[in-house]
Amino acid sequence: TIRCSWDDPVWPRVAIIGGALGGFYTLVIPGGLLLAFRMNRDAAVRGDMKYLQRYGFLLKPYKPEAYYWEIVNIARKGLLSCIIKLTTSTPFMCGSYALGVLCVIIAQQAHVRPYKYEKHNTAAVCVLALAVMNFFSSLIFILQSLMTRSTVRIRFVIFFIFKINFITYEVFNITRVTNH
């Protein structure tokens, strides 16, 4: 086993490699994509064939005016992973920060509606909203002062019913959008 301590002979190497790879994923990849997209903004909006052959796999699901949305997705994932890894002293604050990031992303997703097809926009908001509910329920369960056996059961049943209702609503909503 590896102890998360600088005294452990293996952990410092793992921490340095993990930090370098995490930095690469959260900073270098989105930064490189941002630079490439900014330099070729007109070609992206115009739908230039050479540009689409090179970056089309990243742009295909998005509207031309939302060509940058893949960067937003990568940055969201990187920011959430950084929040979870860097704010481990208090799990409640970690969950609160992550909840805040997800709420901002949901608002942006609902406002921009970056996908070409409406069913994809609806599905993306649904998935993000489910993530918000998971973070919110985890915040409630973290509070030790409110943890009794009966309150845990009651909260579990309430959140389970709430999530089932939400999922059912979104599945029918996605089905309705795809059939029209």
- Give the number of helices: 7
Helix content: over 70%
What structural category do the secondary elements indicate? mainly alpha
Instruction: Note the overall shape.
Output: flat
pLDDT below 50 for ≥5 consecutive residues: which ranges? none
The description of the largest β-sheet is: none
Task: Spell out the blueprint of helices and strands.
Blueprint: H1 11-39, H2 41-46, H3 49-59, H4 69-86, H5 91-112, H6 118-142, H7 149-179
List keywords for this structure.
single chain, 180 residues, flat, mainly alpha
What does this structure look like?
With 180 residues, the chain is mainly alpha-helical. The chain is built from seven helices and no strands. It has helices spanning 11-39, 41-46, 49-59, 69-86, 91-112, 118-142, 149-179. Helix 1 packs antiparallel against helix 4 and helix 5 packs antiparallel against helix 6 (118-142). The protein is flat, with a radius of gyration of 20 Å. The termini are far apart.
